[in-house]
Amino acid sequence: MALNLQNVKLEITAGMLSQFPKNDLPHLVFSGRSNVGKSSLINTLLGRNKLARVSSAPGKTITINFYNVDNSFYFVDLPGYGFAKRPPKERAVWQKLVNDYMMSAGNRRSPMFVMQLVDMKVGTTADDCMMLDWLNQTETDYMIVATKSDKLNKGDFKKSLDNLLNHELIRENTTIIPFSALKGDGKQEIWSEINSVILK
Questions:
Q1: What is the value of pTM for the model shown?
Q2: Edge-to-edge, what's the strand order for the sheet holding 142-147?
Q3: Cα–Cα separations (whole angstroms), residue 38 to 35, 120, 145, 172
Q4: Is the pLDDT of residue 200 over 70?
Q5: What is the DSSP letter of 33?
Q6: Spacing of C-alpha 46 from chain mean position
Q7: Rounded CA gap, 58 and 79, in Å?
Q8: What is the pLDDT of residue 58?
Q9: Distance between CA atoms of 58 and 7, rounded to whole angstroms?
Q10: Predicted pLDDT of residue 90
Q11: Per-residue pLDDT for 83 more than 80?
């Protein structure tokens, strides 16, 4: 299926359950900790510079952004988790909003696929592990995008990738793609995965 990537818009910025889309378009969900590179990944995939904004204060925005991609599916940008400076009240708002969204998937006929981002230089954090555990328990389909792959030398790159490939919480046979927003490495592989799970 050929997509017109010029026909992409930020359709909804949702801060509550009632604002989520009501149609049956598939959802491709971007999940990860603050500053892991979700906005950079979205912009790279769509060939844009500033469609998805990179926050100057990671973790500050507590909304879910729904990008309509050629009226074929949504890129769903979840607010980043694990930002230590966020006060407990804001963390509670994040938890409720994301939980409402993930639970709403059961009420939709449209498929949902999660792109779980992990910083290759940092590795999986405790918050990443909690998210992976939730994805496994709910039997949600997902892949791993290992971001900032250009920040490592060859030895550290191999070690980081091996850690992901052998991670006890990452489901067996899960697709894992190293990605660099700076170099564009992994972009075509990610689109191939999107084509197979969303546009099949």
A1: 0.92
A2: 8-14, 64-69, 73-77, 27-31, 112-119, 142-147, 176-178
A3: 8, 14, 10, 24
A4: no
A5: B
A6: 14
A7: 9
A8: 47
A9: 28
A10: 80
A11: no
Which CATH number is correct for 8-197, 3.40.50.300, 3.30.365.10, 3.20.20.120, 1.10.10.10? 3.40.50.300
Q: Which residues are CB-contacts of 169 (< 8 A; sequence separation ≥ 6)?
A: 124, 129, 132, 133, 136
Compute the average pLDDT of residues 58-71: 82
Please name which of 79, 80, 66, 81 lies closest in space to residue 26, comparing C-alpha atoms: 66
Q: 142 φ, ψ to 5°? A: -155, 165
Q: How many CA atoms lie within 13 Å of 77's alpha carbon, on the beta-carbon side?
A: 29
Beta strands in 42-171 (DSSP E): 64-69, 73-77, 112-119, 142-147
Task: Give the residue extent of every domain in the chain.
Answer: 8-197
Confidence at residue 123, expressed as pLDDT on a 0 to 100 scale = 96
> Measured between alpha carbons, how far is 135 from 119 in angstroms, rounded to an integer?
18
Lowest-pLDDT choice from 94-98, 142-146, 147-151, 181-185: 94-98
The neighbouring-strand residues paired with 10 are 67
Residue whose tokens read 């993930």 = 102
Q: Token pair for residue 31? A: 């999940």
pLDDT at res. 59:
47
